[in-house]
Amino acid sequence: MSIEITSKIIGQLRQEENFSDWWKSSEIEIPFFDKEKLSIIFMDFEPEHDKTFIAEADQALTSFLKLNSDDRNAISNLAYKNCMDFLEAVEIDSAYKALRQIKNKNEIWNFIQPSEIYVTRRPYNERDIYIQIACECDWEQEHGLQLVFRQGKKLTRISDQDGHLTEADAYGKSDSEDKLLSQFNQKENKNETEWWKFWK
Predict the structure, then answer these.
(1) pLDDT tens sequence across 142-189
(2) Where are the domains of the chain?
(3) Taking residues 44-52, what's their average pLDDT?
(4) Cβ(22)–Cβ(16) under 8 Å?
(5) Is 44 exposed, middle or buried (0-12, 13-18, 19+ CB in 10 A)?
(6) Beta pairing partners, 117
(7) Which DSSP symbol is given to 200?
(8) Of 4, 13, 71, 116, whose CB neighbour count within 10 A is largest?
(9) With contact defined as beta carbons under 8 Å apart, do 148 and 158 qualify?
């Protein structure tokens, strides 16, 4: 028999049959994608071993669900760069003609299709909560695209879906060498004085 957990933000999540540490919600309107409805999955979560996960996840979701299309367009340049970097690495192909003809970088979102949202705890370093949006995209059909938001507040990674939440984790770098992640740290240190001491 399936087990359910309750989020104060997105309601009931049902335990997945094949992965006991995955919990899936019903479809939720996502303002970041013009209220497109997507399921949200709490991933790698064992309630008996992580007593604060749901509260921290709810806090991250509260921040993330405040993001809208303006916030999405604010990172269009990063999504566009991901696309152009891929196209520069492959042979000229007529299948990518529309992508090469993009004039306004905000148009890149017409070629990105979000599929699911995962909420998970980073297994290393500060062990913070991250929200990861898994997407299909028209240029990288094999590995797709992921958008990762630390604490649901700010984009800290955009890449193919490689199983890592941060560039630091993916490439064995320090967090200070991870450009987007270190920008988050600088912003948070400025606006939320010394919150990081709780992770020391």
Answers:
(1) 999 999 999 999 999 999 999 999 999 999 999 999 999 999 866 554
(2) 4-199
(3) 96
(4) yes
(5) middle
(6) 40, 133
(7) -
(8) 13
(9) yes
**Is residue 41 within 8 Å of residue 22, measured between CB atoms?**
yes
Place of tokens 């696309």: 83
- Residue 124: DSSP 8-state: S
CA distances from 139 to 114, 134, 179 (A): 14, 15, 24
Structure tokens at 193: 């004085």
d(CA 193, CA 200): 14
Strand-pair category, 154-159 with 145-150: antiparallel
Q: Could you tell me if 166 and 181 are in contact, meaning their C-beta atoms sit under 8 angstroms apart?
A: yes
The answer to whether 129 and 54 have CB atoms below 8 angstroms apart is no
* Cα–Cα nearest to 61, from 36, 34, 41, 35: 41
